[in-house]
Amino acid sequence: MSQIFSEFLEYYKEIKRYEETAGIISWELHTEASQKASDNLIELQSFYEGRAFEMSTCDKMGDYLYKLLSDDEYESMPREWQLSVKKLKREYEENKNIPLEFYKEYSKTVAKAEDVWQNAKRNNDLDSFMPYLEKITDNLKEMCSYRRPDKNPYDLLLSDNEKGMEREQIDKIFEEIKKELIPFVKKITEKNQPDRRKFTGHFDINKQKELSVFLLEYIGFNMDAGILAESEHPFTSGITRDDVRLTNHYDETNIINPIFSIIHEGGHGIFEQNSDAKYFGTPLSSCSYMGLHESQSRFYENILGRNINFWKPIYYKIKELFPQYENIKLEEFYREINHVERGLIRIDSDEVTYCFHIIIRYEIERELFEGNIRISDIPKLWREKMNEYLGIEPSDDAKGVLQDSHWSGGAFGYFPSYLIGSVYDGMLYERIEEELGSIDKILSEGNIKDITRWLNENIHREGTSAQPKELIETLCKREVSAKPLIKYFKKKYGELYGV
Ligand code: ZN
């Protein structure tokens, strides 16, 4: 190992420590910490993030990267560090022009905005949140102009979230989904809906936690290298591959949302735990692209978790924990978990209407960043689009624009990732059946871990270093397309609803 490379490794290890510390503080902030602790924790998080940012963008870093990319040095590094150094160089070039003070101020604004948003949502008080939303979008535009003055800001944000998926392609895919699914959902929701009352009642939270852990282990999440806590909104935080932290949010009156939330987070967690060990401690230890990440969580949640065969070997567990389910047949449970409804809330929606919740947010973001609408236009546009795609509109902002945390956290360009993830899932579904045979059969025999193993080998191991779109296209031997997803919806829900 050359002198310069070993010096650099020490330097990078320090950056990584700051990032991991910031991650742990953020985890505390959103799980166990008291309300009063939050201001101090925000300060701490921003301090460590700032420190990592400073070290990644200063001249010293530039100097290291320049030297390591020279022929001799480059050739002598292991492959994972060749890829890592290239990635760090790209980020360095983009981020070095962001003024440090601006960056620190921005990360504080965002942390504060998340707090303001929570209260605004609780009190249905959009006005208190609007100035923050305005500030965050202005700051993000400014940030993009430092990073890539040659690039359209929203395109840059899209590429941060899913490199390779260009706006034209996303537009085309989403238009196809709208064209096929708006009339399909209309037909379904005109049908008789099942009686849903028997699924509500009182469900012990501790037993729900027990069920969550059971499900995580069943799908292949390793609890020896992970923990489960509670938070307002379920999320996953991969500190390292041996320290993957998941949360769930429980509901005393109904177990269905918590069940699917934990299967979803479990999918993220399995991805985090199974990146190749050689990437440990490098910038490639985790997948930073959300389309590919969401494709994994949503594959477990929807394609597997909402399949009746997933439950055949384990439905007994629900009955065992919750006597209320004693007289609910598996077929009834299956209908309930695939109940298609024109609802207002994204995270409560079924997998079909979910598409529209995403498209609405994507279209609003796009127009906002193009300067075609103002922040104050969002609520009205939200209502119009909900009406157009789903035929309903929210009576208040808490059930409209205030429902999600993403924008308060500066996560613009993130929403499309969920639907891109599902689009990938339609393709993966076909690919897995080609290689492993019927998914229904694998699930009904209780062999879900065979699917997890396939995903480990084909997606998780190298997925942290690959360009996501290329990975999917190579694996599935076709261009990214919504057709397999639409086909899957029409077959499954056609049978369920007789349309
Ligand atoms: Zn997710």
Q: Can you walk me through this structure?
A:
It is a single chain. With 499 residues, the protein is mostly helical. The chain folds into two domains: 3-150; 167-497, Neurolysin, domain 3. The protein is built from 22 helices and three strands. A hairpin with a 2-residue loop joins strand 2 and strand 3 (243-248). Zinc ion binds at residues 264, 268, 294, 297.
Q: What characteristics describe this protein?
A:
499 residues, three-stranded mixed sheet, globular, binds zinc ion
Question: Percent helix among the residues?
Answer: 55-70%
**What fraction strand?**
under 5%
Shape: globular
Task: Give the strand line-up of the largest sheet.
Answer: 1-3-2
Oligomerization status of the protein chains: single chain
- The ordered string of helix (H) and strand (E) elements is HHHHHHHHHHEEEHHHHHHHHHHHH
Q: Major beta sheet, specifics?
A: 3 strands, mixed
Strand runs, count: 3
Give the distinct bound molecules: zinc ion
CATH class of the largest domain: Mainly Alpha
Reconstruct the topology from this structure:
Elements: H1 3-30, H2 38-57, H3 59-68, H4 71-76, H5 79-95, H6 100-122, H7 126-147, H8 153-161, H9 167-189, H10 205-219, E1 226-230, E2 236-240, E3 243-248, H11 256-273, H12 290-304, H13 308-311, H14 315-321, H15 330-337, H16 354-369, H17 378-390, H18 415-436, H19 439-444, H20 448-463, H21 468-476, H22 483-497
Parallel strand pairs: 1-3
Antiparallel strand pairs: 2-3
The structure holds zinc ion (ZN).
